[in-house]
Amino acid sequence: MEDLKATPLRAHHEGLKALMAPFGGWLMPIQYAGIIAEHKWCREQAALFDICHMGEFLFKGDIEAQGLENVFTFSVKGIPVGRSRYGFLLNDRGGVIDDLIVFRLAEDEVMIVVNAATIDNDFSVIRSRLRQDAQLTDVSAQTAKLDLQGPLSREVLVELFGSEIGAIPFFKFIKTRILGVDAIVSRTGYTGELGYEIFLPASKVTELWELLLKDGRVAPAGLGSRDLLRLEVGYSLYGSDLDEATTPLAAGLAAFVNLDKEFVGKDALLKERQAGAEKVKIAFRVNSRRAPRHHYQIFHEGAQVGSVTSGAFSPMLSCGIGMGFVKPEATALGSKLVIKHDKVEMEAVVVELPFYTGGSLRA
Distance (Å, rounded) from C-alpha 105 to C-alpha 263? Predict the structure, then answer.
């Protein structure tokens, strides 16, 4: 535990009696009042998440001439200023080094937001694919990030910081001033609910955290509820549903790959598209309240065909749900599965994503 990094809010989490645990090399709050209670609060009101562990890189310069255009699976130069785009950094085998979001801050400036456990490697890989004179800076240590998610998040932020925030469309952002400093407020999140991600200097995050929690509509939420919320809407988790041995095509995320442009890993994806993937991600619903877990085995017609990568009990569906990778013959909607682990056995059926469609995401 002594080797783990901590966010500027560690003392506040401990003061709130949060259960703290390692995550991606960081000591992070897993829950406060409880995972189910925090999940319910986010679905109904506004939950506040400390996401300061995420990484942020700034690129400044000519996007195409300095090589950034060919780094990711999407076009960076095609992102309008004020918008963001989700996609992947791949290895030459088409495997996912990381999934990330790029924010187009200006014609010649972008912010790249990456996962906490992959910050150093991501920076090294991206740097290696740019021209030597390209300006890429890791600003993760100076940058803090809070996520306010839930159907009441808009009215909370509008009352505090003005109507401009209320007018931000989905996957757009604004540059603004919060607590007297430059900040970015983005209409993005990881919960399936209306929500915002706020980037500001790390020196101001404690003040913002305290201010938001003064509002009775806002409650702190940990990574446990965040994981449950994202699973209900079918979002992938890096390290579980995505990794360097898994391609975006196998993971059902081809919509975030532009095969009409150049990027590292494209040739491997073209070959996979022609030959077909050996393993394919599915979503399944358990025929009971039992929760499937990571690494549980998936059986189809008596044979093991794959394993679970994410699973939990869904409060919104009142049953177990999960995602996993299986052989192609077990991917058809309606296919009957058996999920097994030691003496645990549960029946399931292949379903479409998202599991839960009642969120306020695009409200």
Answer: 22
Question: pTM of the full predicted structure?
Answer: 0.97
CA 244 – CA 249 distance, rounded (Å): 13
The pLDDT score that the predictor gives to residue 3 is 87
* Residue 102: count of CB within 10 angstroms of its CB: 24
Q: Can you name the CATH fold of 5-51+141-232? A: Gyrase A; domain 2 (3.30.1360)
pLDDT > 90? residue 1: no
The dotted CATH code for 278-351 is 2.40.30.110
**Is it true that domain 55-138 has CATH number 3.30.230.10?**
no
230-264 residue pLDDT tens? 999 999 999 999 999 999 999 999 999 999 999 99
What the block records as the tokens of 273 is 């598209």
CA distance 305 to 298: 6
| Element containing residue 320 per DSSP (H, E) | strand 319-326
Helix, strand or coil, per DSSP, at residue 235: coil
CA gap 233, 363 in Å, rounded: 16
The answer to whether 305 and 327 have CB atoms below 8 angstroms apart is yes
Cα 56 to Cα 73: distance, rounded to the nearest angstrom: 18
What does the alpha-carbon distance between residue 103 and residue 54 come to, in Å, rounded to a whole number?
Answer: 14
